[in-house]
Amino acid sequence: MSLKIGDTAPDFAADTTEGLIQFHDWIGDSWAVLFSHPKDFTPVCTTELGYMAKIKPEFDRRNVKIIGLSVDSTGDHEKWARDIEETQGHAPNYPIIGDGDFQVSKLYGMLPAEVEGDPKARTPADNQTVRNVFLVGPDKKVKLILIYPMTTGRNFDEVLRVIDSLQLTANHKVSTPANWKSGDDVIIAGSVSNDEAKELWPDGWKEPRPYIRIVPQPR
For 178-210, what is each residue's pLDDT tens digit? Predict the structure, then answer.
């Protein structure tokens, strides 16, 4: 299965470090970030889990829930959490899925359907494709997919930036330009006619080209 932006995020039941969840029910009316890891006790992932715990209040402020996943048991996750706290200064303060049966990894297209066996017999390299970030909206649709190599730690500040853009553009008829940050100018969506734009932005807009109409970020 190959997930695409706009697809419904597959629902699943899974054991986590905070108990059994049903994914869609767990999301509820919130947004959600599911970020996956090939193995417990791996160095890059250790820094990522710690950083996500540190900036969790930023996700909370945006009504975004965080959930991790690693191809190991929840018991291993709990031991790993102690290492994460000791080395990164922050223990995971969000659930981590125990995907020892590879169910979620296969459901989300991160591992081939034929993978089976003892997860402890697999190395991080065997699971190297389990390095995705999925952003899911309250409508349970996939809004963003990021895939990183094992050797490169993920930029979760970028995930927050994308969330700001998606939440803004979901409520206003605008798009955000390259390297946009909250508070910067935005672009009137191409689907908006000039007549409609005049009603929405009576003070006008900057127009370096007819197809680039720049306005302040709506509040």
Answer: 999 999 999 999 999 999 999 999 999 999 999
In the chain, ranges of CATH 3.40.30.10 domains: 13-152
45 labelled catalytic: yes
The answer regarding whether domain 172-215 maps to CATH 2.40.50.140 reads: no
Cβ proximity of 156 and 51 under 8 Å: yes
CA distances for 95 relative to 23, 26, 39, 49, angstroms:
11, 11, 16, 11
Each residue of 96-123: pLDDT tens digit? 999 999 999 999 999 999 999 999 999 9
Return residue ranges of the chain for CATH 3.30.1020.10: 172-215
Take residue 30 and report the two structure tokens written for it. 């919130």
Contact 100, 40 (CB under 8 A): no
Indicate which residue of 45, 66, 84, 168 is catalytic. 45
CATH number for the domain whose boundaries are 13-152: 3.40.30.10
- Kindly list the distances between the CA atom of residue 214 and the CA atoms of 2, 103, 181, 190, in Å, as whole numbers in the listed order: 36, 45, 15, 11
Summarize pLDDT for 30-72 with one digit per residue, the tens: 999 999 999 999 999 999 999 999 999 999 999 999 999 999 9
Per-residue pLDDT for 1 more than 70?
A: no
pTM, two decimals, is: 0.95
